[in-house]
Write a structure and sequence with these properties.
Blueprint lengths: L1 H13 L3 E4 L2 E5 L16 E6 L2 E7 L6 H11 L8 H6 L9 H21 L1
Antiparallel strand pairs: 1-2, 2-3, 3-4
Helix pairs in contact: 2-4
Length: about 120
Amino acid sequence: MTCALAFTLMSFVQDEPISKEDGMTVVNTTTICKNEKGYIDNTPVKIFIQNGKIVKVKPLRTKETPKYYALVKKAMLSKWEGMTTKKAEKTAVDGVTGATMSSKCLLKNVQEGCKYYNKHK
């Protein structure tokens, strides 16, 4: 019974959209954008924010095609670094040709994550 309770609590903590990590606010888009789909799956991220600016965007587990999603991550993730969350909420970062659906899903996750942060900070 204790094991089941611990597992349930761990699942709950991981699904919280906003948390603190390494002195930064972290927005996890797993539940915020759960209905967004790329080519195969959603592309959830953790957005690390300090003083209203994005420090980094870290991709979370996805079932997207690894070869194409690697291109998306390489081309897109660093483009948000240093951007304010208000600007990122409205900015359309260029995606990757050949991985359009994955790119759009990643973009939507970052935009919605920033929107959630701006509303709930």
